[in-house]
Structure formats: C-alpha cells, structure tokens
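Tokens as discussed.
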C-alpha cells in the first residue's frame, strides 16, 4: 500500500511540475503580448495626436468624409465656410459653399 501511495505522489508531482511550467510559460507569453499591445496603443495615440495637431494648426481647410460625403472630421479653416448646424447632418456640398454639388 505504501508503494502505491509513493507512486501516486510521484506521478502527481510530475503532473504538478508540468502544470507549473505550462502556467509559467502562459504567463510569460501573456506578458510579452501585453507589452506589444501597450507599444501599439502608445504608437496609435502618438499618431492620433499628430493628426489632431495637423487639423488644429493647418493654415488650409481640411476634412475627412464618409462614403455618403458627410463630414466626419473638419478643421477650423474648413468650418469657416460652413453652416455649423448642418456640418455633420448633411452631405458636404449642402453645408459647404466651397465644395461643388454632386450630380
């Protein structure tokens, strides 16, 4: 009976060691992935900040439109020629005298 107990404990110890190693490897992989994710988020924030600065300080009108030609993003210079109440609701040609109408 004692020999069977020793064998069971030895097998459990081997499985426990394997579980610990696998768990540790998983944690290390997660930490590496988390580091890459944090780097990607930081890079995205830097690019967004750069785009915001370009929109804010550009001496010309800038806008970004969707496929229905509605403004998604517009800077101050572009907005000067638009009616503010209609900037986000209507297609660009209706809210901006700068853009030609679509036929």
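Sequence:
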């Amino acid at each position: 009976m004692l020999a069977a107990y020793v064998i069971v404990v030895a097998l459990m110890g081997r499985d426990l060691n394997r579980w610990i190693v696998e768990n540790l490897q998983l944690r290390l992989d997660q930490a590496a992935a988390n580091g890459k994710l944090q780097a990607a988020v930081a890079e995205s924030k830097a690019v967004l900040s750069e785009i915001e600065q370009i929109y804010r300080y550009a001496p010309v009108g800038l806008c970004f439109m969707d496929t229905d030609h509605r403004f998604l993003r517009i800077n101050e210079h572009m907005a000067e020629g638009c009616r503010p109440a209609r900037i986000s609701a209507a297609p660009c040609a209706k809210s901006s005298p700068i853009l030609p109408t679509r036929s």
